[in-house]
Amino acid sequence: MTEDEARAWIAAHFDVSRETLEKLDTLVRCVVEESTHQNLIAASTVPAIWARHIVDSAQLLLYARGPWLDLGSGAGFPGLVVAALTDETVTVVESRRKRIDFLNQTAERMGVGDRVSVIGQRVELVESQPFSIISARAFAPLDKLLDLAFRFSRPETIWVLPKGKSAKAELDQVRQTWQGAFRIEPSVTDPEAGVIVATDVKPRKIKPGKAR
Q: Which of 4, 151, 138 has the alpha carbon at shortest distance from 78?
């Protein structure tokens, strides 16, 4: 997917006003500028930032809408993209100080600061509360992610987890300890990658004497 194709994909799938495009352009500028000071995204992906990061994040909105929790948001993918393309409230969790500052400043520059809450803590320390949507991109292996984030979910919570080429392998690995309505959707940015989409996620009951 070229950068022009990525912009066209966004326009074709969302009600994109000039203001919305300006928000996304602002996010791109902020990430590129800040990447000279800290390692927000791989340098090799900067020339393809719309395809590799904007569309890769935006595609999650094909499967879920609602108050959103994004874990390990880093450069704002997908959290700030969701905030740009919707009117939803978005909570992003990030523990690294420079990235916390970047997320706060960028949300304000994009004009979405009133709907974006940045929690500057490790996920383990964040107060439990339920969310309609949970996302995490390049944050943790699926088994660890489910362990960390389960307390933020309800049965109806939609999990949208881009997992690249490891999606099937990671999902197969957790099926013995976790249950739910899991499926893998193909990524629009990489035919070999997948997005795990799930609801009704919960740990399986383990027989006494059998450790998880």
A: 138
Establish if 207 belongs to a structural domain. Answer: no
Structural domains in the chain (count): 1
Question: 77-103, pLDDT tens digit by residue?
Answer: 999 999 999 999 999 999 999 999 999
Residue with tokens 């916390």: 100
CB 152 within 8 A of CB 132: no
Strands (E), the chain: 68-71, 90-93, 116-119, 133-136, 158-164, 178-186, 194-203
Instruction: Find the domain containing 136 and state its range.
Output: 3-201
- DSSP β-bridge partners for residue 70: 92, 135
CATH number of the domain enclosing 117: 3.40.50.150
Residue 152 CA to its chain's centroid (Å) = 15
> Do the domain assignments include residue 102?
yes
Compute φ and ψ for 93, nearest 5 degrees: -115, 125
Contacts of 173 (CB under 8 A, 6+ apart): 142, 143
Instruction: Identify whether 151 is part of a domain.
Output: yes
With 0.85 as the threshold, say if the pTM is over it. yes
**Do the domain assignments include residue 210?**
no
CA distance 56 to 52: 6
Q: Cα–Cα distance between 148 and 142 in angstroms, integer?
A: 10
